[in-house]
Design brief:
The chain has 13 helices and 15 strands. With 466 residues, the protein is of the alpha+beta class. A six-stranded antiparallel beta sheet has the order 6-5-15-14-13-12, with helices on both faces. A four-stranded antiparallel beta sheet has the order 1-2-3-4, with helices on both faces. Strands 7-9-8 form a three-stranded antiparallel beta sheet. Helix 1 crosses helix 7 and helix 5 packs parallel to helix 9. It is globular, with a radius of gyration of 23 Å.
Length: 466
């Protein structure tokens, strides 16, 4: 009998240990997400942490109710814990580059990275957007039905049901190079930096394009990834083109839940590029289309390496070659613990600055008669990836091109086939329709199916005579 109780006791202890281990491995993603998200929203975007946690974080997953957060305004850090003691995670804010989740690095080491940053350029407050920050609604073209457009935008900020969570934060409509309408939700203004999530991927495309224009990268050659340099490595032949098109063949699950690649990369990895580059091949390169934030972070590290290999050098490159040249003074792509910008997910910018980037795309990579992106780069970027079944993806841009030979079979059947867009988690979007001279920005934290991009874009188009 004593032996039975000893064995039972050991089994019970072992079971408790396994449960604690599994729970901790799950909750470290939850605390990492909460810490990182809150840090950026508080110190970069200037939002109230209680409101952010209640409205943005908790509805994302039921387990976030087990997480508590502590904001240190003096040191500009946010620490999250689960059940008051488990899965501690801390994120650090650094002026100019936003927040970073501490993984395999100390707070002091992170702060040492953030040196020699190029100062931010001054905004031209006295000029009309996009050159400056003034918006003139008195010269809206006659073909725009302003009253009807106003109703569409008001509806976009409404909640269709008593329990729905559209949570629209900002809308900016650009037509023929000028803002013709905008509106902001509570806690948000035209000066509020807003997280784009996967919309950052398209900015990574632009940074790669700039290096191509400068002759520093050839996207058709094997990608310069240190983990794949041995000729016998089957990943050695993967090109940057295949990474851009999400057809590298790498095994990667873009599923936002626990124990999946994308959450392990974002909340458990010191180097996000190294995590993604360590993955084996699932298919031959170009054998399948597989949407993957890991591929984008490998591209981000390639850019990082080719502009000097430091946080300051990559930050200054972005500012000098892209953001400052088109007036995106608010834009920040936050880095991982190694100092490499997280090109898959962590870009903040005001809604007007997201619209500026969309306008650059609509203008074929030219800004104020100056070429930013190389000739032909966007035509390349908008070619549907062969293995994408509905022609819905190019090179880090979403498309509405339709299935080859059956254009009616496309993501948004009622919208033009030349619609290009950047899409982010929680139904964020910047869409460009070159044939209609339109850029549309919708930012929000939608936690249900109450928002419909097609309905909204169709509504805006119906307000402007073609």
């Amino acid at each position: 009998m004593k032996k039975f109780w000893k064995i039972s006791g050991l089994v019970l202890i072992l079971t408790i240990c396994v449960v604690i281990y599994l729970l901790n491995s799950i909750l470290i993603v939850g605390t990492g997400y909460s810490s990182k998200y809150l840090c950026s929203q508080v110190f970069l975007a200037g939002r109230d942490p209680g409101v952010v946690f209640k409205n943005d974080v908790v509805p994302t997953h039921a387990l976030f109710k087990l997480v508590s957060n502590s904001v240190d305004y003096d040191n500009r850090t946010v620490t999250a814990k689960a059940l008051g003691f488990m899965s501690r995670a801390t994120s650090v804010y650094r002026e100019g580059c936003g927040c970073t989740l501490m993984v395999g690095v100390t707070e002091e080491e992170l702060k040492e990275q953030a040196q020699d940053f190029m100062p931010l350029a001054e905004r031209k407050k006295d000029k009309i957007w996009p050159e400056g920050e003034q918006v003139d609604f008195s010269t809206i073209p006659a073909e725009v039905d302003q009253e009807k457009l106003s109703r569409v935008i008001e509806e976009a900020f409404s909640e269709p049901g008593p329990a729905t969570m559209r949570n629209t934060q900002a809308i900016v409509i650009v037509y023929k190079g000028r803002v013709i309408a905008e509106k902001y939700g509570k806690q948000f203004t035209e000066n509020s930096p807003i997280l784009g999530w996967s919309m950052a991927k398209s900015a990574t495309n632009a940074l790669v394009g700039i290096l191509v224009r400068q002759g520093k990268l050839d996207i058709m050659k094997p990608a310069p990834v240190m983990e794949w340099q041995k000729p016998q490595d089957p990943r050695h032949a993967i090109t940057m083109d295949q990474l851009l098109r999400m057809s590298s063949g790498l095994e990667f699950e873009e599923v936002y839940t626990f124990w999946k690649d994308v959450t392990n990369m974002l909340y458990k990895s010191e180097s996000m590029a190294a995590y993604a580059a360590s993955k084996p091949l699932r298919t031959e390169p170009d054998g399948a289309w597989n949407y993957s934030g890991g591929s984008t972070n490998i591209l981000a590290r390639i850019v990082f390496d080719h502009v000097g290999g430091s946080l300051a050098q990559s930050h200054n490159f972005m500012r000098k070659e892209l953001f400052d040249r088109i007036g995106m003074k608010s834009a920040v792509i936050e880095p991982d613990s190694k100092g490499v910008f997280v090109g898959s997910s962590y870009m903040y910018a005001t809604a007007r600055d997201w619209a500026r980037f969309g306008l650059l795309i609509n203008n074929n990579g030219v800004w104020d008669d100056e070429r930013i992106l190389p000739e032909g780069w966007l035509q390349y970027s908008f070619l549907p990836t062969p293995m994408a079944p509905k022609g819905q993806y190019g090179a880090q841009f979403w498309l509405n091109a339709g299935e080859k030979g059956n254009l009616a079979n496309r993501k948004y059947p009622s919208l033009p086939t030349d619609l290009i867009y950047m899409g982010g988690f929680n139904q964020r979007i910047v869409c460009m329709i070159p044939s209609r001279h339109i850029v549309l920005v919708r930012m929000g934290t939608t936690h249900d199916d109450s928002w419909d991009h097609e309905w909204f874009i169709r509504g805006v188009l119906d307000c402007i005579e073609p």
